[in-house]
Amino acid sequence: MKKLFFTLLLPLFCIVAAQAQQAENTATSELKFSEKTFDFGDISQGDVVTHVFKFENSGAAPLVLSNVSTTCGCTAPAWPREPIAPGETAEITIKFNSRGKMGKQNKVITINSNASNAVERISITANVLKAESSN
Question: Could you say which of 44, 48, 81, 127 has the lowest number of CB atoms within 10 Å?
């Protein structure tokens, strides 16, 4: 009887252990921004302005940003290349060069990562005014 009991109990134990390991392997990271848009307001043509977007890994696994891309060469991102641990914060710095731009500008930045929300978008806006000519 003991042998039958252990024979039935062993597969049950294996199933429970496999499910626990699977739950452990499905831990994911999550990218959470404190803000997703920023407006520089009125700036003069030729100004170079910078904004820092802060974010947190609110998931349970390390967060890795694989790519940060922009819609225009006038916008340059700088982002952390090392993994961000769960609960840690980091920053993405966006630099916008308004040379050759005029009027309302809206630039979208796309962030690709290993997070459960694998593709996130943030944006900057500015109203570029004609530069004053100096005489």
Answer: 81
